[in-house]
Specification:
With about 220 residues, the chain is α/β, with parallel strands linked by helices. It has an eight-stranded parallel barrel, surrounded by seven helices. Helix 6 packs parallel to helix 8 and helix 8 runs parallel beside helix 9. The structure holds SN-glycerol-3-phosphate. SN-glycerol-3-phosphate binds next to helix 7.
Length: about 220
């Protein structure tokens, strides 16, 4: 399973990358706004900086919602770096654009996916990744993890090559459950990734080992 970090914060990306376990980065317009990125040139520079920090796929989201402009924007984004993956919203023109990008060999991430029907269309269109938002489904009393299970079943039934990129992850148990279900990728905030490290018995055991080692040093 690949681990992506879901942030546009360069310090957080550096910290996750320093662990040696980071396979990529996802961003979205809200995450870019959160780190104060404004204007097209600043956005491009920021993606370039992220691409320098991580050897792996970097999702860059289009802001357009009509076919022609999604294509124009996506082609511009894809020229920033070979690792850029064009993130396209799950809308009618988005699906058409994903098919166009597939034919051109440009990688895509179909975002804002909340149902298995949407995921089926994304795979049919040739998306490289599909991003089901599990946390936001949980937020409205739906079962986000069930959606991952359903998409995995459908994709396995037909050997779709689209990778399931579980997004909107809120805590480490989301990551564990996605791994059990066979999600290809999870994208999570730094806090959820770092939380995987910890167990109180590890801390307690290490403390005991180090104290006992004092006896024979
Ligand atoms: O990758 C999509 C993700 O950023 C959405 O997460 O926490 O805003 O629902 P969240």
């Amino acid at each position: 399973m690949k681990i992506f970090i879901d942030t546009a914060n360069l310090d957080e990306i550096k910290e996750a990358a320093s662990l040696g376990i980071l396979d990529g980065v996802t961003t979205n317009p809200s995450l870019m706004a959160k780190v104060g990125i404004k204007g097209k040139n600043a956005v491009i520079k920021h993606y370039e900086a992220i691409c320098k920090l991580v050897e792996g796929d970097i999702s860059a989201e289009v802001l357009s919602t009509d076919y022609e402009n999604i294509i124009k924007e996506g082609e511009e984004l894809s020229k920033i770096h070979p690792n850029i993956v064009v993130k396209v919203p799950m809308i009618k023109d988005g699906i058409k654009a994903i098919r166009y990008f597939y034919d051109k060999g440009i990688k895509t991430n179909c975002t804002l996916v909340f149902s298995s029907g949407q995921a089926l269309l994304a795979a049919k269109a040739g998306a490289t990744y599909v991003s089901p938002f599990i946390g936001r489904l949980d937020d409205v009393s739906s079962d986000g993890l069930q959606l991952i299970r359903d998409i995995a079943l459908i994709y396995n039934n037909y050997c779709f090559e689209t990778e399931i990129l579980a997004a909107s992850i809120r805590h480490p148990m989301h990551i564990i459950e996605c791994a059990k279900m066979g999600a290809d990728v999870i994208t999570a905030p730094l806090s959820a990734i770092m939380a995987l490290l910890h167990h109180p018995l590890t801390d307690k055991g290490l403390d005991i080992f180090l104290k006992d080692a004092e006896k024979w040093k």
